[in-house]
Amino acid sequence: MSEIKNAVQKLYNTYPFPPDPLLDEPPPGYNWRWHYQSAYNFCKGKKPQKKQLRILDAGCGTGSSTEYLVLHNPTADILAVDISENALATAQKRLQKSGVLNDFQGNIEFRQFNLENSRELDGYFDLINSVGVLHHMPNPVIGIQALADKLADDGLFHIFVYGELGRWEILLMQRAIALLQGDKIGDYRDGVAIGRELFAGLPESSRILQREKERWALENQRDECFADMYVHPNEFDYNIDTLFEFINTSGLEFVDFSNRDFWQIERLIKSEDLLQRASQLSTQERYRLIELLDPSNVTHYEFFLAKPPHHRETWQDDQLLLEAKPELNPCMLGWESKSLLDYNYQPINLSDSEFALMQWASQNPSQNVTVKDILSQVNSTLDEVRSLINRQLIMMA
Ligand SMILES: C[S@@+](CC[C@H](N)C(=O)[O-])C[C@H]1O[C@@H](n2cnc3c(N)ncnc32)[C@H](O)[C@@H]1O
Asked: Are residues 170 and 272 in the same domain?
């Protein structure tokens, strides 16, 4: 076990990940998965009440996620941990250089730490972010269980792990490189050199080369990315069935995929009859159907877990909705305009009444304006308000 952990540590000390450049300014835009209010709203259907947050970046790497966590949660207590000392050193440099800490009123600590021992961490966390980490642990079940035990009662656990169907060619190349490395396995620079030479010589008809070119070549210009992909000493890849087995070991409840739109069967099936049949399937079977029909795009799964019983407010009760107080989702670009980018950077065009609703929602929350107040001023409907909620444009308090 600890041999595998040491090999993973050596990889990320040789090639700290991600190799995002260190900037002299804060990172661009936003990432709603790391904005607690926005992520909570996505999962629970309403704005969180909790103000004093504790956040764990579990396997922070070189700190690209940590930097957004700092930027988006300016009063939070943030702990960022990793086993790679070189990745941690870069993460610290990143945050110092970009200046995000200048306006930060919370606490940030970086710590070299093995996530297998997460139960030893003090207290509980409202948001645990673990992107691209659990699938590299010697036993991911030990990792997910230890972290699940550290989730606060109303907390959210955001996870990213690999999908086997979309990584099929990667796996073949990993094995080819390993065969050629022989007893030099574990020399990651040698592995990268072999991999690059192999790609340079493969015929155009090679499926492995085609996949590399169409999907990965841009990011793999950086050796750190190439190494992370092709010479990793330890990687678990999941399919929907093994993913849900894995999730179930955590004792937590699956909330949703954070790329929710991808997991809509209507994207792939147009026949009414087949859609009707698909609607008879369990949620997990429907997800399985989606990945069977669109395998090459399932390179990973990104999703939220929460402590049971998880409840998501859907605002179907008219009275409840009339009394709620809307606010704008902080993750959008282009407000105050009718054409803007939503939380996923997708272009949105608002109708006149939607725009008017959002203008009311953008007022200072201390004014306590309810949906009922707004609908007495704006010619709109509760269903239009629901549509804005579902599209993550407004959050209800
Ligand atoms: C692919 S990188 C992801 C980094 C970052 N989360 C991101 O998404 O950009 C995986 C990171 O997990 C860390 N890691 C792997 N196993 C770990 C463990 N048992 N405990 C702590 N960190 C670990 C590695 O050192 C590496 O920095």
From this structure: no
